[in-house]
What does this fold into?
Amino acid sequence: MIHPITEHVAKTARHTTFYLACGPADGTPIIFVHGWPELSLSWRHQLPVLAALGFRAIAPDMRGYGRSSTYPTHADYALEHSVADMLELADHLGADRAIWVGHDWGAPVVWSIASHHPERCHGVANLCVPYFARGFAPENFLPLVDREVYPESEYPAGQWDYQFYYMENFARASAAFEADVNATVKALFRKGNPAGRKKPSRTATTRRDNGWFGGLPKCPDFPRDADVLTEADLAAYVAALTRTGFAGPDAWYMNHTRNIAYAAHAKNNGRLAMPVLFLHAAHDYTCETIDSRLAEPMRADCANLTETTIPSGHWMAQEQPTAVNAALTKWLATTLPAVWTG
It folds into this structure.
């Protein structure tokens, strides 16, 4: 059965979440949480597939994005607020528990739901960004930088240099993305390149290059990568990001101290007992988990971990949707058969 994707709004006194839904209303909820600078639309290839299997597939616009609430200060984008948004969304759906799936900044949100509210999780799956029980912040992942690729004398922050650029040049970073949103989206949403393995990511020289675009005030114009975005997808991203701007999305990078403090209050010292799936992106050279030690803390802190590697760049759910859907489906069937309602 083909289920339509429908649009909905969950509104509380503190926050409004726009979300897409697909699948039977009585299906087990599987909630897909996007990252920077994406939308609920980013899960367009997953929603109908999981719905056809009997799940109630949900994808919200996160705070600062799309048709969900935006906020004026950096502190409004600390992870604890997005966790609260997602728990309110689950309440709105009438779900005591859900399966949670995250990507990019959506992954730390899902990891935080799992570590602070395990009773709300059947299981969690995350793409690209592994788990850090002590908090997803530079002080926790800088020690894991692959110094063969990033000699400390040349790349003191490794591939994470871009995160320091946000902290030091926030207004300039946002303005450069906003100057030509169409060009920005086309430049960002590109498939992975296998030839980049063992070579420095372009995110390693953001400060040296005086910004994302070599000091230029806006992004150069590149062709759209048809393997990741259709023209309609591009138009939707551009319309949404033009309307909201990048200040909210970029503010997610400005809360490392707050996020570390929040992580310290996790249950069970942050160790996860529920089923966990992690999808490595073989050609993601910022969240590089194949050759480096970046995934080691996750392996120590997840008692029931399944790992799968997808031949993809960072935008895995959009670049390799069939492989992502297959990995999710296999994990659900083998580790969570009791919640499979189809």
Q: What stands out?
A: The two ends are 11 Å apart (CA to CA).
